[in-house]
């Protein structure tokens, strides 16, 4: 799973704690093991994440847009390196991409353009309004019937720091277009709306710092709420064979902060930062040491559910 959230996918206060949540769900037998690759963003985040100007642009050998360059970096440099070094299942059925806000629309656009690479995509509070809602209007609405071969997770809250709806309306329109094209709810599409911010009593139980309660009551466009929805997207996209997939509530397992998985971090291409996390049972191919990435490893430590 390639995350456009960078280290916020795993590390530090305010992160998503995706790795710990995955540990909890794997231990409970509710999802398969995964390798998470967190790719950091730089000063051109907007240009790299806003998606293609027209369908098929990221596959062009001559397109020079920053989104196209980012797509080529992920698919032609980073993913091949991961596949060479780790014991992966390299096919699209086992490879996904995810992100929030701008990273959400970027993830859906990457999977849309690169179905031979990505078979799973997740957009959390996706910024589908950018560029005049171009991805919705010029890519999705011009698509004739016939779903592409990848599964989609979409979510949003209902309020954000700007007084808007956290992208709910446009995310709902994206989900509707995907259904028109051929995606089916519970099969290859899950659209989740987190319909109410947490109450003070719920915030008390959540363990969130009290000085952040005001923001949490007035905006769902942040890592705290994305962390709470982590269980839903993990179980939808990496559920174990035979599991039924349906609507998943916010009360899905969420792990406490802490490091529970093998982690490797290091430098990548022009000082771009990335991080790799694996379940303890996934070791680098041929027992290669973490130094293959000029990084360091942390010792495995058990995770516990919140």
Detailed description of the structure:
- With 306 residues, this protein is an alpha/beta fold.
- The chain has a single domain (2-298), classed as Rossmann fold (3-Layer(aba) Sandwich).
- The protein has ten helices and nine strands.
- It has a nine-stranded mixed sheet with strand order 6-5-4-3-1-2-8-7-9, sandwiched between helices.
- Strand 5 (151-156), helix 6 (168-181) and strand 6 (189-193) form a beta-alpha-beta unit.
- Helix 1 (18-27) packs across helix 10 (230-237).
- The two termini are 23 Å apart.
Topology:
Elements: E1 2-3, H1 18-27, E2 35-39, H2 45-49, H3 66-85, E3 96-100, H4 102-113, E4 120-124, H5 130-140, E5 151-156, H6 168-181, E6 189-193, H7 200-206, H8 213-218, H9 223-228, H10 230-237, E7 262-268, E8 272-278, E9 297-298
Parallel strand pairs: 1-2, 1-3, 3-4, 4-5, 5-6
Antiparallel strand pairs: 2-8, 7-8, 7-9
